[in-house]
Please model this.
Amino acid sequence: MMQANGTEPQNLIGTWQYHLDYVRKSDNFKDNQKEQILKGLSKLREFFSDEWLKEEIKSGYYHHPLVSYMSNYAPWSQLKLVDFANRLDSISNVPRFEKLLESLKNPEQYGGAESESDSLYKLKTAGFNLELYPNIGVGKRKADIKATIENNSYFFEITTLQPSLKEIAVSHTFNSLTFPYTFMDHDEIIVQCKIYKALAEPRIKELKNKIEQAITQVRQNKEFVYIGEPGIIDYLIVHKKMEAKLDTLLSKFGMKKEISGPGFLVDDVRRLEAKFWDEVKQLPKDRPSIIVIYANLIYFSEDAGSFYSGLAYEIEDTVFAHDNLVMGIIIGNEAGFRDGGTTIENPSYLFVKTYLNDLMSESTLIVKNRYSRFAILPTNENIVAAYIRAPKP
Model:
């Protein structure tokens, strides 16, 4: 695919060195953030080589999540890469780590493998001895992790809540109409946009053509172009020489400073329940077991504690139904400024919201199974501690 300025996609992001140089020169980051990001990205480069990056960029910008994070120069996105790099460095000596790394390099397997790496880091930091992909003693079935502490061993299934068809459609629409156009600040182009709903492929192609033609026009006349269809899209492309008039232009077209996509509503409770029933089949029925679901859930309230408390009420009996399950854990990450965090605890569940860095928080809901035959194991609290107190990598 050729962009409006005639350059090939891989030239926009380039090599690891290009990316490091861009971060070094960028004004997007505070000095302490920049130092942290450069150090973390250099470490990540040791696991994901220059050749790997070159091949992934050839296959398409959003094909691999790491390339997506790299291409987003917002501080939260770069800091997420730093946390990931430090985590990999910490767990790289766990047996069978190379198999995990192979999965991380595969865009189709990355989501599940990334979640496994996070749980490995949490458990290792808490003092557990770890084994990746252990046999559970039933045929060839394997769990994801076996974690042992004080002679007690636990089997873990680590999974992600995959996007619904609606989420996939929304994501495809948003990515197609914003990338790489919204990352052209260094190319004298400023883009602000609001996309209101998921669109069919013919309409996406039609709008992409309009956007690329508009970008060419703005480069030539050094002014602006607005693309608008009521209920479909508001798209403003402005040359940097007109940046002082950006607020006035946004107001003129009824827009605000944002790059946002359509909202959508999904029944995540039912999807989580189905995930628990599916994953428990992979675990031994006679050994203490845990299911961890990584899910960036959508809720229409700023009060994460209230949302997750309601979620615990909805799913607790799904956890109680399996006497081999010691607990069920749900983890989600969110972007947002640090606000002090949240802790809610009652006999059935524990909810903790902590911050991974200045811009990213982690919400963890632990539903404890008081009906489990393994509920009295004293080391159960070591697992709780691992998932809510693991320090930042």
In short: The chain has a mean pLDDT of 86.
